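Re: folding output
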Amino acid sequence: MKKWKVFCYISIFTIASLMMSCVRESEMGNGFKKPSKEDLNRAISLYVQIAYKALENNEYERAMANVKQALDIDKNSPMALNALAVVFQSQGDTGKARETFKKALSNDANFSDAHLNYGQFLLQQKESEAACKQFQLAADDDFYQKRAIAYFYMGVCHKNNGDIAQSESALERCLGLDPANAQAMGMLASIKFEKHQYPEAKELFDKHVQAVRASKQVLSAEALWLGIQLERVFNKPDAEASWALFLKNNYPYSKEYLEYQKSLKK
């Protein structure tokens, strides 16, 4: 897998380099056809992809260098500015991140990627109401490939704001677009449990467990605590004990384990 990632990384970089060589040769009058707007946008997109892959490895300098390459082509590119804002956010420079997200959206108010990323930034800053508006704008784009993600984060925002009905609706829309979204299943299962809709909660919880295990991830403390409570409702002491042991072994200092211990004393 690592070799494949390296190959993809090198391939993207090579294509971007070749494309920009053509652009520079054209500017120098060496016989190449002047690059079209589409060619320039494609080069910007490639540099931005390299920047995001660098961020995945916490290579902030490499990410910034590639964003600069994109901005050198077009300093007002919403795609490049959005990437720059994400780099600033990753570095903890919240002031510059906010300013740059706004600049990206001022250049293209319909750029759904920027709405999604800005919403995630605002959610991180605990500005849930403002974040919800950004996620809604992204989700309203019928052709946006990340609509399911936008709806998921809308669910998170609305839940943070105490609007459980809107949260439930957004999470259901998310699962309608992406039935395998494990995070949405888990959060919706929790909401169903709180509404005493136990069969629905159990079905969603079981699907959440399957999806998490299929991705070779570990269940969260929150999910394990929900599993314990669901098994109690359905009077399954062996299953309850199994989830409790898992919680104790993996999250012994979590608030969920403390809640479990308190529940035993009632």
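--- second protein (sequence, then structure) ---
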Amino acid sequence: MADIYRQQIQMAEFFRTYYPNAPIAINDIGAISFYGDPHITDIYGLGSTRITRIRTKDPNKAGNITPGVLSILKKNNVEVAAVYDSWYGLREGNIPPDWIKVGAWRVPELTSLGSDTVSFYGMGKENAARLQTNLAEFHAKLPPELQSYAVP
């Protein structure tokens, strides 16, 4: 329960505060959709059937952000994404071109989450700059044990 509060509830509050009606992409829809009403594209596929269809067509690419998924994100005008990099193999050299990583939150002593770290990406420079500003402003509201860092 503590992990959910530290990561998922904070994400829900962040998106409810800064992106209440904006199109966002996430891979863990629970708290964010429960505590707010954002326009979510679920890149894992549980809440987005078009993405589920893409992921099930090629099980070998189920863990990747494929061109089909990127096409849906673009069509949905997604501004920001909050994802577990480890679920999609996102690392330097393997991040979609328009995605700009601006920060991450890490939960110490993970017990019940899909990953200890959630990364935040802006889709393009303008969205990345706004996201970076919003994350910096929200930082003071985070529980002290949640490690937050900005990407230079």
